[in-house]
Hints:
By secondary structure, the protein is an alpha/beta fold. Among the domains are: 3-25 and 115-350, no CATH class; 482-529, no CATH class. The chain is built from 18 helices and 18 strands. The chain has helices spanning 21-24, 37-53, 56-59, 68-78, 84-88, 99-102, 119-128, 137-147, 165-172, 177-181, 296-303, 306-313, 357-361, 423-435, 473-477, 482-491, 522-538, 540-547, and strands spanning 3-10, 27-33, 60-66, 159-161, 185-187, 194-204, 210-214, 216-220, 224-226, 231-237, 258-263, 266-269, 283-288, 326-329, 341-347, 366-371, 440-447, 461-468. Strands 1, 2, 3, 6, 8, 9, 12, 13, 14, 15, 16, 17 and 18 form a 13-stranded mixed β-sheet that branches. The protein has a three-stranded antiparallel β-sheet with strand order 7-10-11, with no helix packed on it. The protein has a two-stranded parallel ribbon with strand order 4-5. A hairpin with a 3-residue loop joins strand 8 and strand 9 (224-226). Helix 2 (37-53) packs across helix 4 (68-78). It is globular and about 65 Å long.
Amino acid sequence: MSTVQAKLWVSPMGWPELESPEVSAREPIGLCFSGGGARSLAASWGQLRALYALGALDRARYISGVSGGSWASGIYTFQRVTDEATFLGPLLPPEALTLTALAEPLTPQSLGFAATRNVWGFLAESTRDPQVPPDRLWADVIGRHMLAPYGLFDHGAPEAVAPNDAYVDALRARPGMAEVIAGWTVRTPARGPFLVVGACVLGPESMLPLDVERPAPIDLTPLYCGVGEAVTGVFQRRTGALSKIKDRLQPGDPPPEVVAVPVGGAVVESVVFGGGPAPAKGGVQALPAPNAPWSLADIVGASSSAWAGVLEETPGLGRLHKLAPTVSLWPAWRDGTPPDTRFALGDGGILENFGLITLLRRGVDRAIVLVNTSTPLDTDWDPNTDAPSPDRIDSYLPGLFGRPQKSVGTTTVDNMVFPTAELAPLVTALQAARRAGEPVMALQTHRLLDNRWWGVAGGRAVKVLWVYLDHVPAWEAQLKDPELKDAIQDGDRKILPTGPLKHFPHYKTSGENLGGSISLTDTQARALAELTSWGLLRRRELVEALLGG
Length: 549
């Protein structure tokens, strides 16, 4: 295996991006775009539009994305097809909206176009292509589906990412690196804030299928990728049908194979991510060159591969287990070169769907969390007396306060970063906004707790502006077009919702439209973006209060 001179950062470490004046000069503010497929992408489109108008994108140090939120934040960060204002679109008052205008076809001059792409046609193309390795199938689909219209994916060509053009020039000057990246397209961000995409480590590829007991978080950025904290993932091999092994054991049966696998403790430059292990010493050193670089499509593809969590837990699928994104990872041992193990990666939402905890690790003291959920907030629930449940509030939020919720395909038990006592006041504030018919937002100050699994150092206060996707009667009351108002009412029926805005604004993550597609129509995407952009501007005093510190 050939080697190149590349950089390794070993934990404990300062965050590498802060070595750049362009990043460190920004305020310690994070903008967090949640998962939620095309629903989150369309909602994020509108939210980015408002945050651009309010100046938040110029001030924030970080932008994070998980799953559908990574599509939005990744495309926004890298696109060069047009200027920001055109790409994000104009701010329109509700009274100017019509159902006819919302149905106008979107183009790649707009972020919203990505939410309308039909993934299944591209899935068939990628599946038939012998040049696409099985573990890169989803990345190829996302590349063709989401990124290619913006000039961010060239099918069949090796692509990598780097933080800026000057960094690429410096890479080429290192021994052996110019030859390795010759012929690669190295994409760099067109704008800040610094992008952090969240995914998770499902387990060793050799153990599939398995029950994931404790997946590890992994950060994917234009500068570096890896599991920054030294952790031990716990994995259980699965041999039977669909239920968990431990639920099927009979008296006298041998126990299932449970394996604890250490991983992490270092991150490597993104251009060599996946190349193999190296001794855990920081700085520029000889590292194995990857067979193929990790591209922007690989990064947002891994973050959005929710199906990988299903595949890795399902026995009897044979080669289909090979479809999960895989990469070489290793524990950053102090002595010698550790063994090389290929791990399957999965959707960031399997572990943490907001992209908040990874920014708390990086020291942000303010964050805007865009919860682009499919779950309406239950205003009849009393959070002071009754426990949270997935039908009352987004299932990921209580886990941050030590109240993890059971949900198919997720593991959120390690996510506590705020005191449990702070959950009820937050929910109460969100419910008050919903009852008032206003955008569901609440600005709270939380006490940050230590979280050793994630590597969060507590003991400080953090301001968080929670933005929760829900109906906004104040916006709907300003609509003038009768057809649009009727479409929203028809789509919100408790029994047999129908029409062009069925389930608005809580579109299904998959299967909202015919054929089980994850895409939205032009009307659905535009309407949701109009709602979310208006909502942030309606309560701009909360955004400005957070930005003000």
